Amino acid sequence: MDFGGEWTFTLRESGTARFPVHRGRAAPQAATTTESNAQPAIGSPGRIPLGNPPEPPNSYSNTGNLAEPEPMPYLPAGGNGTSPKDIPVYQALSDFDWHSLSLALYQEYIELDLFQEGLRRFTVEDFQNAGLTENDRSLIEFMAEQEVGHATLISNILGPQAPRQCEYQYPFETVPEFIDFCQKLTRWGESGVYGFLPHLDSRPAAQLLLQSITTEARQQMIFRQFEGLFPMTVWFEGCGPKTPRLPWQNFPALFIQNNPNGTDPKYGPAITHNRPALSEAGREVHFLYEGPGQTVGPNGSYITNTTAGPPKFAAWFNQLNVTYTPLYDIADNTAKAVQPAGDLFSPLNPIVNGTVFVALMDTDLYVTPANVSLVLPHVVALALKPALRQPGRQ
Length: 394
What we know:
This protein has five helices and 14 strands. By secondary structure, the protein is α+β, with helices and mostly antiparallel strands. Helix 1 packs antiparallel against helix 3 and helix 3 (134-158) runs antiparallel to helix 5 (203-226). It has an eight-stranded mixed β-sheet with strand order 8-7-13-14-3-4-10-9, with no helix packed on it. A two-stranded antiparallel sheet has the order 1-2.
């Protein structure tokens, strides 16, 4: 299938498995990325294993013809939880479920508090000076009410030992900074839930969480519009004393010292703006990263840690890809890399666009959306809110 431009997208058909294969200069598989010549590198998906992608055993014919009798009229055979005998259980069924849902609950708590704090801290006049009306304030108030529902839902799934809400401190001092913080925080929560959702053992709980996180995706789009950013820049959307301790790893923080600022008085709140890109492929990015051993989280009860070796690559997590560019000028917990180039399916869809996540890695491990957590042992430092990038169409 030729999508035009400088590359071709094909479907590999061997047996019954199908998988996209990129060809050509703009495709990430063909990118030039070498540690000896890092600065002009345009990005790579990592070291692809020999014979990748594997062809897993699949006995299904993939012809479109019904292979099994319908269990009930107009219902094709198969699927999870589709039988009348399947009784949904809206509870955590494993450690992974419980702690993933708890992480999502913390996200709902901070969003609820954040939206309410912005309305408390800033007056109607403050919002009007930022180009936002009383109706816009009412929309933020309604989004806070949505978070009450989301937190209640997940708390009910987890039961009486569900985490409680914390107290929060925020870095914003103006309405534009508040809006910018909101759009980044909702992006963080949206991506985190999408990542673990297909891996939950409790499919019924996953269905309920899906219905809440799709609402959050709409919130993130609204905050981008409030900020004057392009509302959706990608084709695919690729964390008190009674609070239980979660086992998830807390990585050393990663900061971008020359991160572009999304707020611009020339581009006020609107449904959309055709504004210049905040950053582009080939732009040099300056990183500063902490070492492990920092106390973070509620009451300083967590300590950052990494099992990775020295940093060698910047990993850019966006849409369906993790794209690597080599680090250079690595010294004193600082490093540089270039923003990767390349497209996903079409030159109309840059491989890095919107608000993305960045990590420093000790290797360029090849992963796909379903197994991206395999990078965790190789993460040196992970980008938090200040390091989320917003390149491309805005």
